[in-house]
Each structure stands twice: as structure tokens, then as C-alpha cells.
Amino acid sequence: MKKSIKKITALTKRKGFVYPSSLIYGGFSSTYDFGPRGVALKNNLKNEWWKEMTRCQDDVVGLDSSIIMNPKIWQASGHLSKGFADKLSECKDCHKRFKDLEEDGKSTEKCPDCGGDLMEPRDFNLMMKTFVGPVEDDATTAYLRAETCQGIFVNFKNVMDSMRVDLPFGIAQIGKSFRNEITPGNFIFRMREFEQMEMQWFCNKKEADEFFEFWLKQRLEWYEKMGIDMEKIRKNEIGEDERAHYARRQVDIEYKFPFGWGEIEGIHNRGDWDLSNHSKHSDEDLMVDGDYPWVIETSIGVERSFLAFLVDSYEELESGRSNDAESKEVVLKLDPKLSPTKVAVFPLLKNKKKLTKKAKLIFEEIKKEFDAVYDETGSIGKRYRRQDEVGTPLCVTVDFDSLEDDSVTVRERDSMEQIRVSEKELKKVVRRFMEGEEFGKLGKKA
Ligand code: GAP
After folding, report:
1. From the alpha carbon of 198, which atom of ligand 1 is closest?
2. Residue 321 has pLDDT above 70, yes or no
3. Beta carbon of 175 within 6 Å of any ligand 1 atom
4. Hey, which of 194, 222, 235, 267 would you mutate to test ligand 1's pocket, going by the most ligand atoms within 8 Å of its Cβ?
5. Which neighbouring-strand residues pair with 254?
6. Which of 310, 344, 374 is the last residue of a domain?
7. pTM for this one?
8. With contact defined as beta carbons under 8 Å apart, do 19 and 37 qualify?
9. Which domain holds residue 223?
10. Same domain, 163 and 303
11. Is the same domain home to 305 and 404?
């Protein structure tokens, strides 16, 4: 089975995960909206990261800073300079624009598309501009943040003063970032508006190398815990020439997408770049005990990792597993922690009142604790298939025996194993399954 972004894009649109944005107006370049299932998956992903970074790590606290901040911040951070710009080449004939041709070893004189002459390459800054207030001039120019962490650096002293934390400690934040990318693309891989989950770890200079290794390892373990195929994950140590302008060391965590290896997270040693520059530009003393703390950063893109988890979990089965073999079946083998819906509840037949009544009662009970859906239309096979396609790990069926013994059949998505569980025990069984217990051991084989 060959996975392709085209197939995944089609599935995500068809099943309410991701829609191209502004579609009724013909769309809008490389912008996407997340549908009901997409927002659920995204929230699960963010919750898992947040839990891992702030609850499981004693010394990491949270923050939610502004998207539009004082523009001086971007001067101090270096984002308004050349370091945060792409080389833009434009064709004189077809006016197509290309980024970093020289870096990619391509001619900077001829258009790669039509062969026309290219204009002299120029630096193109990636910061998105806006104006604050009614007048549009230099004095009101502001920027949408290009990385969430600048909000962390400028709040570093606030957090230290208000939270009784001491070095080493971290600040984590999830939020939108914006970059005026010249060549967005590959579905939701490169966009102009995206979300980042960043953690800045403030420590003493002499501990920075050790903490770099610690966080790199910790982040790699997280992907494994989230069920991703580790054969498709690699570390890429970035050389000095290609590193971000603030980074002394940079290791990208990459995933093998259908279009090739792509960065989903960056681990950076930012040294004292940010705190010392903000001190200089703001005149605020941001030192601790006479030194600037050093910063180790973990920075993961929400949409990029969302795409990696989707690609990774996408499977097509050649033969029908639900007596409906006309077309290929898709199963999203998402880790249950990420699945938009955890449990689907079905009555065996739609037109048997006793069955639907019982199934609805079970659904009402289960949805108090887990994201659940109720479905009574189509054959049971079709209903299983519907849930497989959107990654629901458990399906519960109420049958005629249920009316006698108050038990239900629970079927697991990946193994298709079925167990019989008493109604009373059902929530506990789902809870234990979600905690990672082996499905087959949670009830009698059905
Ligand atoms: N604060 C560090 C920082 O922003 P980065 O490597 O530029 O580092 C971190 O970005 C992560 O943000 C990337 O690994 C990627 O997942 C995500 N990201 C960056 N630019 C993106 C874009 N245009 N579209 C989607 N995600 C992006």
C-alpha cells in the first residue's frame, strides 16, 4: 500500500478532519480549517504534550502570551533582520517566486518553471505585518509573532518573581505563530498560520549540553509513547551554516512523510541569545545571580505532528474485513489517546426498540467520561468500517443476549478482537484500555 498526501487530504476532507479554508470563495492559498474530528485530534495532541511537559515534569510551568507584542521584541530577537529572511527569486516572464534557489544548488538566473530570466534575488523577511490602531504608518506597525517563545523570554522575570521557581526550570506554551512563507505547501506541512508547542528550559551555562541531551531524549521518547513508527523518525544534526540565527546547536526531529523526510520538531541550544538581547534592548536586567541563563528549547509544530500521526496511522486493507470487499478499507490506527472518538455504541438492529433503548442508555453513560458516538444506521460491518476510518478504537454492540445478561460485545479496531463485558464494568474496561492494558485480557472472548 502506497501512502500519499493526496489520499490523506481526501480522507481528512471527507471525514471532517481538515478542510481547505474559505472554500466557498475559491479557497485561500495554503490555509486550512480543522473540522469536528480534526479539532478533537488536535486538542488531544495538545493535551498530551501539555500533560507531558507541565504535569509530568515538576519544574515546567505554563504560559499564554500575546500574539501581537511590542515590535521592539522582534528587533531584539533578530527576527526583523536578515537571519529570518528567505532569498526570493522572481521570474521576469511568469512572475513565479522561488525560495533559496542558490542554497538548493539551482541556477539563480533561469526560472526552474518556464526558463525565463530571473530578477536579482532579494531578502524576503518572513514576519507578518499588521497595524495597531486606526492609522497605518511606521509608528503603528506591529507583527504577528513568528515563534511563541519570544512571549516566554519577555515573561521570564515575571514567572521567576511570581512562581517561586529557580534555575533550572522551564516555561511551556502552546499557540499560533505566523510566517509569510514564500512557498507554503505539502498540505498542512508548511503554512503561513500554524500552531507551535514550545518549551524553554532555563539553566546554567555549564549544564546546557547535558540538558540538551536530556530534552532530546525525552522528546524522542514522547513520539514512541504516542505510538508513532520509530523507523520513520530520525534525528538530524544541523550544521553551523544552516542553523537558525539564534541556535548554537540544533537537532531536528524528522518524520518520513510520503514526500520525504520533514522536520516536525526542533531542539535548540539558544545560549543566552534571547535574554541578553532583550536585556540590551529593554534595559531590564534579565540576569540571575549575575549571569544570563542559557536556554534549551523544544519546539514542535502542531499541524506538522498532526500530519505525521495521520500519515503514520493510515492503513488500507486490500480485502474486506466487514463483508464489504468492493472497495479498499481505510483504518486509521491512531493511538487511542489521539483518536477523536474513543467509543462508538451500536444497537445490533435499528428497528428493535428494546435494543436501541438499551444502547442509548449505555451511550449516555459512557459519554460522561469518554468522547463517544451512537450509530444505528447500516449493517454492523458498515458501522465498524465507518469507525475504523476515523480511528475510533472501541465499538460496543448491544445485541439480543444483552437484553438477557446485561452484557455487551466490545470490538477493538486493530486486532478486531471481540470481548464480552458486563454493562456495569464497561466504563472501567474502557478506562483500563485507554491506560494501555491489553484488550484481550479485559473480558471474556466473544
Ligand atoms: N522557536 C523555535 C522555532 O520556531 P522552528 O524550527 O522555526 O523553531 C519549530 O519551528 C517548529 O514549528 C517546526 O519544527 C515545525 O514543526 C513548526 N513550523 C515552523 N514553520 C512552520 C510552517 N510554516 N508551517 C507549519 N509548521 C511550521
Report:
1. 1
2. no
3. no
4. 194
5. 234, 263
6. 310
7. 0.94
8. no
9. 5-68+143-310
10. yes
11. no
